[in-house]
Amino acid sequence: MAAGLPLSPGHAIAAALAALIGGTLAAVAWVAGGLSALSEWDMRALWFTLWQAALSATLSAVLAVPVARALARRQFPGRGLLVTLLGAPFILPVIVAIMGLIAVFGRNGALNEGLRALGLPEISIYGWQGVILAHVFFNLPLSVRLILQGWQAIPAERFRLAASLGFAPRDIARHLERPMLRAALPGVWLAVFLVCLTSFTVALALGGGPRATTVELAIYQAFRFDFDLGRAATLGLVQIGLCVGALMAARWIAIPASFGAGMDARGGPVAPGGWRRAADAAVIAAAAVFLLWPLAAVTALGLPRLTSLPAEVWDAAVRSVLMAVTSAGLALGACLALALAIARGRGRWIETAGMLPLIASPLVLGTGLFILLRGLVTPQQMALPVTVAINAAMALPFGLRALIPAARSLQADYGQLAASLDLRGWARLRYLTLPRLARPLGFAGGLAGALAMGDLGVITLFASDQPTLPLKLYQLMNSYRMEDAAAAAVLLMVLSFALFWLFDKGGRLDA
Amino acid sequence: MKIALIPALLLATPVLAQDRVLTVYAEDYVASEWGPGPKIKEGFEAFCNCELRFVTGDILPRLLMEGAGTQADVVFGLNTDVTARARASGLFAPHGQDTSDMSLPVEWTDDIFLPYNWGETAFVYDETRLDNPPASFAELLDAPDDLKIVIQDPRSSISGLALLLWVKQVYGDDAPDAWAKLAPKVLTVTRGWSESYGMFTSGEADMVLSYTTSPAYHIAAEDDRTKTAAIFPEGHYFMTELAAQVASTDQPELAQAFMDWILTPEFQAVIPLANWSLPAKLPQEDWPQVMRDLPRPETTLFYSENEAEALRQPALDEWQRAFR
Q1: Can you give the residue range of the structural domain that contains B259?
Q2: For chain A: N or C, fewer Cβ within 10 A?
Q3: What's the number of domains chain B is made of?
């Protein structure tokens, strides 16, 4: 791929994504015969969607900073495992996460039982506070990991220089950490904001009533109950508009940090002693309790029945794993191509296109694809390939958030050297790109695999006689088999996490 | 000659069966191994000399998009809330069954959509956790606000919509007041029935919007007699699931044979313990004991298709205002 060519794999993938998102929306609007106006309730849904997403994103990003800093500058036994485990909530299937949160924070949950025992007033998870709590639970892990990568991307030499100059923690924060955060936080905020924009099941289950209606629910209603495709298309368009607007705002706020290249020496920020040591320990402990307690609660609920799950559930599990690994492979390839193209500064639209899947309504996407493909293949033939492809596309934005900063510094730090050595093509990929991007790539692959594992089928329209594990979980619940469903949830959680761990570990083999 | 015929026959049978495939669009839970689907498939294939293939998913939206070009021969699992729209599409053909002596609490005269099961909405509670369950809808409304119920969203769930119509039929123009009393007791509103029911069984809510037949599952499958449906003298809202044949089917004989089979005792006997609902046409003495023992409401409420369609949006607005 010579630098002069206008079309790189990154361009092609970005174009395909834009066509996928835009094309499916257009197909829905076309079948509807145009867009329809929104109702008063739709506008309320839009308002709730916006403010809850903004608040969730702000809280997740702000809370993630002390956790990431504590993890970046402290070394302790089991730190690597903890970092991986703390990523788990983000990849939890929604229904499983709700079970866990209710088991801890619910009316009958462990926390309220404790409060009752102490004679203290109870807390309620139901209402906007529950929606925010759940969104922070989901997205704090992602935020911590992305910011932690920012810390790790500051070359160790800079910290050593700071130490030799006698920098106090305050000076380090001013000269090293704040510029890094200024570069990383807008992207983190944006990613969480966009995830929360399309929230649906969580908002409804914990929102306490129709006040917590999101745009995605309105789209669902338009499809499933009113069969008003025009309204669905309008709402889908509104979501994409929000995505592009937020992306432009984040780009305007973010200032790329420039620390220059280092010698790859080990060692992060100097760990200050005194009260800061205790504070870091407390921050890490608090995050671990908040993020891991619900996971433990879900495990406790489902574990007893795990071995007695029917064979069909295990079959579905195997199918889901195969699909998830394929999705992750696709997502990794696409992610790398996009990130490299973005790092070379080839057109800002590529980044926008890469973020679009995050905001595309799964319902609009599924219906649009159904309309576009129906003459060509039967829905049954489409079901599995389309699910794999859509899941790969849906995971791209997260992978990109992890990869873009690393790819940018790679280009800035090594781009000229590589050019002077005429290092290009496969050799460049093999000796420069892949080794230096291994960590974010592993993380991106893990995310893609785990997210695909937990996806309930973007496309219930493409019926399939080969059900996935999340679908089996719902079938169990719909047949009153709540205990078996809890066991299937544990299985789903363990498999998602194992996939994430394997990819992530693969990327950190040198660490 | 004879020897040559045997392999030919062996080959011919599956080919014949493959040629005769009845494609049934069904709701997802129907076809899972825990639903009635496997028994229905087995029973039909035993005499039809064909293959019954379930295709699951959002059946009506999909059918409306496919139009007359659909592969579906029969749809299975429609609810009464969508029949008006489904009928208007003109995609369905009459079922051709005599519906004069069904075991339904309402009269059924629809010649397109054929009920195969039924039940009523009800609030289900656990006797060990709720000491003074409300004995009527009025008592539920007047219960202290710390009695917490979970319901389903009428915008995404059929049972949620049935609750809306239930309240409307009991309280009429006073429905907004009823909702104003009910709203503080609503712990949360979930997307579908399963999330609500899970919250109830895990002890999160005191009562859950479910069906009069729900306790049967706990009794028959878990030997748990603590789950009870509160029976209200004001009446309970009727719910039924429907089958219909597609007019453009390329297997009209099979589709008709399937429709003819639905009301037979053989089919109907599958419903109670696989679908956890009541059979649409089966004398009560042939119901499983657990279903016969269930407390039955004295009054069943039901809106006609057109009434329900006309009431839906105003009732939704009232409901949303109550929670504002």
Answers
A1: 2-118+240-293
A2: C
A3: 2
Q: Does B213 touch chain A (CB under 8 A)?
A: no
ipTM score assigned to the predicted complex: 0.83
Residue A345 Ramachandran class (φ > 0 left, ψ -120 to 50 alpha, else beta): left
- The kind and range of the H/E element at B188 are strand B186-190
pLDDT, tens digit only, all 511 positions of chain A:
444 445 678 888 888 888 888 888 888 888 888 788 888 888 889 999 999 999 999 999 999 999 999 998 888 898 888 888 888 888 887 888 888 999 999 998 999 999 999 999 988 999 999 999 999 999 999 899 889 888 887 877 788 888 888 888 788 778 888 888 888 888 888 888 888 888 877 887 888 888 888 888 888 888 777 778 888 888 888 888 887 888 788 777 766 556 666 655 556 676 777 888 899 999 999 999 999 999 999 899 889 888 889 888 999 899 899 999 999 999 999 988 888 888 877 667 888 888 888 777 777 888 888 888 877 777 667 777 888 888 888 888 888 877 887 888 787 777 777 778 777 777 777 777 777 788 888 888 988 898 888 776 555 566 566 788 888 888 888 888 888 999 999 999 999 999 988 988 877 665 4
What is the C-alpha separation between B312 and B315, in angstroms, rounded?
A: 5
B318 and B186 within one domain: yes
Same domain? B253 vs B263: yes
Residues B148 and B233 in one domain: yes
CA distance A366 to chain B (A): 11
CB count in 10 Å sphere of residue B8: 8
| Nearest in space to A319 (alpha carbons), one of A418, A446, A452 | A452
CB B77 within 8 A of CB B54: no
Residue B224 belongs to domain with CATH number: 3.40.190.10
* Same domain assignment for residues B249 and B113: yes
Interface of B with A in 79-118 (CB under 8 A): 81-82, 85
Across the interface, do A370 and B148 touch by the CB < 8 Å criterion?
A: no
* B180's tokens: 């104003």
Is A370 an 8 Å CB contact of chain B? yes
**Would residue B264 be called left, alpha or beta, if left means φ above 0 and alpha means ψ between -120 and 50 degrees?**
beta
Q: Is B56 on the interface with A (CB under 8 A)?
A: yes
Q: Where are the domains of chain A?
A: 9-507
B residues 138-167 closer than 8 Å to A (CB):
148, 153, 155-156, 161
Same structural domain, B306 and B199: yes
B249: closest CA of chain A, how far (Å): 17
CB contact under 8 A, B191 and A204: yes
Q: Examine the domain organization and report whether B20 and B167 are in the same domain.
A: no
Residues B257 and B114 in one domain: yes
What architecture is the A9-507 domain classified under in CATH?
Orthogonal Bundle (1.10)
Beta-strand relationship, B51-56 and B21-26: parallel
Chain B residues with CB-CB distance to A227 below 8 A: 60-61, 64, 85
Alpha carbon distance B130, B233 (integer Å) = 20
> Facing residues of B237 across strands?
B301
Nearest to B189 among A31, A106, A209 (CB): A209
